[in-house]
Amino acid sequence: MTSVSLEMIPRADRFLRRVRLQEYALVGIVVLLVIAGAATKPSAFLTSDNFFTVMTQASVVGVLAIGMTFVIASGGIDLSVGSLVAAAGIAGGVLADTGGGFLFILVAIVFGAALGAVNGAAITWGRVVPFIATLAMLTIARGLALRMSGKTPISVVTLDRVRWFGNGKFIGVPAPVIVFVMLTVVGWVVLNRTAYGRYVVATGGNREAARIAGIRVRRTIFSVYVVSGLCAGISAVLLTGRLATASPVAGSLYELDAIAAVVIGGTSLSGGRATIGGTFIGVLTFALIFNLLNLLNLPTEFQLIVKGVIVLVAVVAQRREN
Question: What is the mean pLDDT of residues 196-200?
């Protein structure tokens, strides 16, 4: 036991150094983006309104990325979160007329968590590979959204409480930004300062060793998909509030944006290494890049190419480190 522990300590130190280096590199990229924006579009880029707009637009994917960090840290993947956003929003919207804004929020969050629990159950007790289980849920949740809505968006214009979460402000800061930052802080504390966070990372690092150490691996894996679904429900509230409409086609490809932010943030796709701070900076990096490209009036296809190249470089860098 002692020899194993001695071997694990330097390995953990190396992982921490790599994560910190990647976070520092991302901070450097953010600084360069700010400099580039200041040089090319100073009047439009360097304003508080633009910054809050960037953060507001990033908040929906950012909340998804927090949940995705736990999933990937455990050695899994969740391809269904974009569809869960649509299904959770529609589930809340169906009851909007009779239950009001509070019921919308409650139902959306619970429905997202419930679908996440289905993912977790299929993976842990059904022994379905995470890629396949969540890919199936991607289509199931999208189908549920279309079925429940009758293929028609549901307006929530009259729900002031829901709309506040999308467009409201508190002491001048947009509500979605507050929610995103708060969840980032909570996620960081849970992952880095609780036994549960250590269990998640240990499960992703070596599942058999975690089981021998007494960690309830199945329960841990199940829980991270519930967390991911919960975050999808919260994202549904933010997105619906901002658009004042729950749409059955909302959240398309959000899962790829969330995974991309997590990967460039330094969380290992193979599990066992995760950083909430890196995920936050990853979300901010993508948001700034696309904001700058939009201000420069570059076409959408160019933006997609840039995103793909960034993700590819991040994954290759991880492979070289391992």
Answer: 95
